[in-house]
Amino acid sequence: MLIAHVSFPVASAHRSLALDTLKQEIETVRAMTGCMSFVPYLNPTNDTDVGVVHEWETVRDFDAYIASDSFATVGQVLRPIMTSPPISKRFDATLIENVN
């Protein structure tokens, strides 16, 4: 499983736009092959950072998302309002247990 954690700063005035843009893509991204989770969030420890945590079955599935029209469309909105480049951390993970 691939887990991607992406965060990026925007001006405080643009946080709602950034979060809303990501939230509009939830259904589309979650419907993509291999997407197990797509969770946008506002960082509660500051007033600038926005992020999204993804879980994908394979790197190939994640790469298809990165190459998708959805990703490009979101980038057209988000990149101009970022105050510095995004930080993207990608993890190769093994699910040990799913506790409900």
Describe what this molecule looks like in 3D.
The chain is an alpha+beta fold and 100 residues long. It has one domain (2-92): Alpha-Beta Plaits. Helix content is 36%, strand content 30%. The chain has four helices and four strands; from the N terminus they run βααββααβ. The protein has a four-stranded antiparallel beta sheet. A hairpin with a 6-residue loop joins β2 and β3. α1 (15-24) packs antiparallel against α4. The protein starts with a strand and ends in an 8-residue tail after the last strand.
Set down the secondary structure blueprint.
Elements: E1 2-9, H1 15-24, H2 26-30, E2 35-42, E3 49-56, H3 59-66, H4 69-81, E4 87-92
Antiparallel strand pairs: 1-3, 1-4, 2-3
Helix pairs in contact: 1-4
Question: What are the main properties of this structure?
Answer:
Alpha-Beta Plaits, 4 strands, four-stranded antiparallel sheet
Low-confidence stretches: none
* Structural class by helix and strand composition: alpha+beta
User: Secondary-structure element sequence?
Assistant: EHHEEHHE
Average pLDDT rating: 96
Helical percentage? 25-40%
Can you name the CATH architecture? 2-Layer Sandwich
What oligomeric state best describes the polypeptide chains here? single chain
Task: Report Rg.
Answer: 14 Å
- Highest-level CATH class: Alpha Beta
End-to-end C-alpha gap: 19 Å
**CATH fold description:** Alpha-Beta Plaits
